[in-house]
Amino acid sequence: MSVKVAMVGTGYVGLVTGACFAELGHHVTCIDIDRNKIEKIYSGILPIYEAGLDDLVKRNVEQGRLHFTSDIAEGVKSRDAVFIAVGTPSESDGRADLRYVLEAAGNIADNIDQFTVVVTKSTVPVGTNRRVHATMLSHLGSDDLFAVASNPEFLREGAAIHDFMEPDRIVIGCDDPRADTVMRRIYAPLTSREVPLLATNIETAEMIKYAANAFLAIKVSFINEIADLCEPIGADVRAVSQGIGMDQRIGSSFLRAGPGWGGSCFPKDTRALLMTAKDLGMPARIVEAALNANTQRKLSMVDRVRAACDGSLAGKKIAVLGVTFKGQTDDMRESPSLDILPALIAEGATVVAFDPSEPHDAARLLPGVEMVGTALDAAKDADLLVVMTDWMIFKSYDLTKISSQMNRRVMLDLRNLYDRDAVLASKFDRYHGLGYGEKPSPTIDQKPALKAVG
Questions:
Q1: Sign of the four-CA dihedral 440, 394, 305, 260
Q2: Has domain 235-432 been given CATH number 1.50.10.10?
Q3: Is the dihedral angle over the CA atoms 45, 47, 52, 54 positive or is it negative?
Q4: What does the pLDDT read at residue 92?
Q5: What is the pLDDT of residue 146?
Q6: CA dihedral 357, 363, 366, 368 (to 10 degrees)
Q7: Domain boundaries in the chain?
């Protein structure tokens, strides 16, 4: 049975979730105050890059299940559930800025005309949904017409549609039986396929999201430190990752060495969790250590670039493949490139970069970096090729052709994307990866799939 749903916010989470709900058969209206963005979506120009999303949106618009509007009054009327999926940026002290969430709650309260479940999809600190309830109560005077629920998202950028349609679990936090009933109806197309649904109270659902992201961030920071230990002792972090990942208690996901984690979730959510702990007067030493380790990790990549350029960056041209925080997305938020590339320029290097997604804000966020249209353009006369982002399409490139364009045929692979022997066979003179030395690659008979970092 279809449910009438509204989604306030057409950013990454709102647009993907709204389109996927429509694909499940629900009638969805996505709301955004930016009329220009709505017009572009209807014309086929999406504000984010996500594989398969353009076709998903187009199909559900054509079939009449997915609509867009800039009028919140129109969007939330006669809805069974309204999801809040607006931004929660970090404040200067690391706390989540909740002004947009609470503003949305007030606007929803002013315009609902029947019983509506107001669902927080944005990642918010513990206690936020109580504030949403209080905000709506101050507008309506009673909660006869609404109930509040927490429904955290677990979408990986670059695999978001898959993660929605085939989730590990669905988490619903609510204290009102009316909200529980509506939420179960919304997710019935997935739970009927035996997707696990975990129903908790509101605070538990809020904490699950933060705890999950903090744990994954810690896992990435851990393998990065192990990678640094592997190099001087002659171990290979790739085989170490495989070996510990085969242990079912640990798992293979998020055990790939890299230049540091970034994106819209890990940095913001770990900082917010740390501030929650500080507000309670309780230590969160492991989370704090992961944040500090990640900052140092990104800075240490500058040392690796300098070493690959024989100790000096002055006058060197550095070609960079990828500037987004991870492959298969155009998201620049908290990308390691934002720390690493300006530091290279500060030491006298010229930096030329290529990213397949052509992120629209790269020029603004990376002043001094020349963005070009192809990998060959970036490699021309370069003294070093740095693989910054794990775009899978990079593995299809003709490395021999790329090396032929370079002044010095040296690759620094900060994602261990390539096989050393294949790179050297492509006329590169030197290859540097992370977490292993100059020995041949290990033989691994069975390679469990590793999910993308971050």
A1: negative
A2: no
A3: negative
A4: 86
A5: 98
A6: 130
A7: 4-200, 235-432
Which CATH number does 4-200 carry? 3.40.50.720
Which amino acid, 345? I
> What sign results for the dihedral spanned by CA atoms 6, 11, 12, 16?
positive
The structure tokens 């070493």 sit at 307
> Is residue 19 over pLDDT 50?
yes
Query: What is the CA 433 to chain-centroid distance, rounded?
Result: 24
Question: Residue 230 catalytic?
Answer: no
Do the Cβ atoms of 66 and 18 come closer than 8 Å? yes
Cα→Cα distances 344→122, 317, 339, 414, 421, Å? 35, 10, 9, 15, 28
pLDDT class for 438, splitting at 50, 70, 90?
A: low
| pLDDT for 90 | 87
Asked if the domains 4-200 and 235-432 are classified in one and the same CATH topology, the answer is: yes
> What's the whole-number mean pLDDT along residues 262-285?
92
| Per-residue pLDDT tens over the stretch 70-79 | 999 999 999 9
Kindly tell me the burial class for residue 329, based on how many C-beta atoms sit within 10 Å of its own C-beta (0-12, 13-18, 19 or more): buried
Q: Mean per-residue pLDDT for 194-205?
A: 97
Q: Is residue 439 very low, low, confident or very high in pLDDT (cuts 50, 70, 90)? A: low
Q: Are 20 and 165 in contact (CB under 8 A)?
A: yes
Q: In the chain, what's the furthest Cα-to-Cα distance?
A: 73
Q: Looking at 20, 174, 230, 265, which residue is catalytic?
A: 265
Q: In this structure, how many other beta carbons lie within 10 angstroms of the beta carbon of residue 111?
A: 19
**Residue 103 structure tokens:** 């503003």
Query: Tens digits of per-residue pLDDT, 246-256?
Result: 999 999 999 99
**205: its two tokens:** 């659902």
- Identify the three-state secondary structure at position 427: coil
